[in-house]
Every structure is written in structure tokens, then in C-alpha cells.
């Protein structure tokens, strides 16, 4: 398939977007915009998107991604509580960088999730993309966990997730969602820059 055919198929896919997918995409983008601003509304808006994507992913046989969205929903509730906590009238949780130990744990967490998801998808589901589905899901698991803790590096994992998800959702026929991940990739890069500036400012 050449570039022209790919673009044509992508446009046709966008035109065929269902109302459910459209709402999920819009709320997903809104959620990331709130995350970049360190606004707690990241969680309620995100929950709307992730609940819808649980259904969409099962329908598209992206089982690991469905599990990710379930995980997102649970972690959104946890993150909502953690971000809501106050200490002396101020937010108890502030943006921080991961230590070497935390980085090592994050990498082990990612690799472990990827291995488990791949094996489950390979042997217990009819997924045709177990390696890619597992990879995108594992990086997302890691990113969401770090976001709940307000770790700067959550954006790095979101960048990885978005890059992996663009082709994954496209080949499954979710063209608008694929486009969403392209937008989210730009927002994740912007988020990394914004949070990096905040960390640097607070350190001074």
C-alpha cells in the first residue's frame, strides 16, 4: 500500500468514526490538556474516555488495550484521591523527578507487564497483534502509575505509548483514535516540557 492509498484509507476511516469513538477521543484529548496544566479535572474527563474505550477495545479485539483502559479507570480514581489531598492548605503531592531506583523499578514494571500481557494475548486470546498490543499497554500501565504519583517521567512513557498506539489503532480500523494518539503525542511532548520547567522552577 502506497502513501496515497494510506492517506485515502485514513480519511475514509475518519469519516466512518462512530459517535462513541468521537466522544471517547474528545474527552481523551481534554483529559491530557488538563494533565499538562496539573489540573485535577484530568481524572473525571479521563474516566469518561477510558470507560468508553474499554468497550471499543473489546469490540476491536485489542484485549490488552481494554485492560489498560480498565486500569486507567481504577488509577484515575486513585489519582483523583491522591491529587485531592491537601497539606497545610496546599497540594500534598508535587511534581518530582524519579530517582535511579524509581527509574529501575519503572523499567522492571514495564518489562514485566509486557511479558505477561504478550503471553496472555498469545496463548489465551485471538489477538493478531499480541506483541504490539502488549507493548503499548505495558508502557501505558507505567505512564498512568507514574502520573498518579506526579512523576515527571510519566510523560516519557506517554510519548512511547502514543508512538506505539498510532499504528496499532489504525490497523484495527479506529482511524480517528489513531489520529487522537498523534495529537496526544504532541501534547505529551508539550507536557514533558511544561512539567520540566515546573520542576526546575521549584528547585530554584
From TrEMBL:
Keyword rRNA processing listed: no
Transmembrane segments: 16-33, 40-56, 62-83, 103-121, 155-171, 177-195
Compartment(s) where it occurs, according to its Swiss-Prot or TrEMBL record: Cell membrane
A GO term from the CC aspect: plasma membrane
Domain of life: Bacteria
Membrane topology qualifier: Multi-pass membrane protein
Keywords: Cell membrane, Membrane, Transmembrane, Transmembrane helix, Transport
Principal location listed in the UniProt entry: membrane
Listed InterPro entries: NMN_transpt_PnuC
GO MF annotation: an example: nicotinamide riboside transmembrane transporter activity
Keyword Transmembrane helix attached: yes
Matching PANTHER family: NICOTINAMIDE RIBOSIDE TRANSPORTER PNUC
Record-stated family: Belongs to the nicotinamide ribonucleoside (NR) uptake permease (TC 4.B.1) family.
Task of the protein: Required for nicotinamide riboside transport across the inner membrane.
Name assigned to this protein: Nicotinamide riboside transporter PnuC
Species of provenance: Pinibacter aurantiacus
Gene giving rise to this polypeptide: pnuC
Amino acid at each position: 500500500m502506497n502513501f496515497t492509498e494510506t492517506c485515502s484509507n485514513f480519511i475514509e476511516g475518519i469519516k466512518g468514526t462512530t459517535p462513541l469513538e468521537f466522544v471517547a477521543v474528545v474527552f481523551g484529548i481534554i483529559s491530557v490538556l488538563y494533565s499538562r496544566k496539573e489540573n485535577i479535572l484530568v481524572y473525571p474527563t479521563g474516566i469518561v474516555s477510558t470507560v468508553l474505550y474499554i468497550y471499543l477495545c473489546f469490540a476491536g479485539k485489542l484485549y490488552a488495550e481494554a485492560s489498560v483502559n480498565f486500569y486507567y479507570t481504577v488509577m484515575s480514581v486513585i489519582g483523583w484521591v491522591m491529587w485531592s489531598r491537601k497539606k497545610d492548605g496546599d497540594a500534598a503531592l508535587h511534581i518530582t523527578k524519579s530517582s535511579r531506583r524509581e527509574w529501575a523499578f519503572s523499567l522492571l514494571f514495564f518489562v514485566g507487564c509486557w511479558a505477561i500481557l504478550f503471553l496472555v494475548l498469545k496463548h489465551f486470546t485471538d489477538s493478531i497483534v499480541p506483541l504490539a498490543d502488549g507493548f503499548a499497554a505495558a508502557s501505558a500501565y507505567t505512564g498512568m502509575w507514574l502520573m498518579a504519583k506526579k512523576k515527571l517521567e510519566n510523560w516519557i512513557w506517554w510519548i512511547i505509548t502514543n508512538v506505539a498506539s498510532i499504528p496499532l489503532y489504525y490497523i484495527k480500523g479506529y482511524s480517528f483514535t489513531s489520529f487522537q494518539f498523534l495529537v496526544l503525542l504532541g501534547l505529551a511532548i508539550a507536557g514533558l516540557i511544561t512539567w520540566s520547567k515546573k520542576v526546575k522552577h521549584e528547585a530554584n
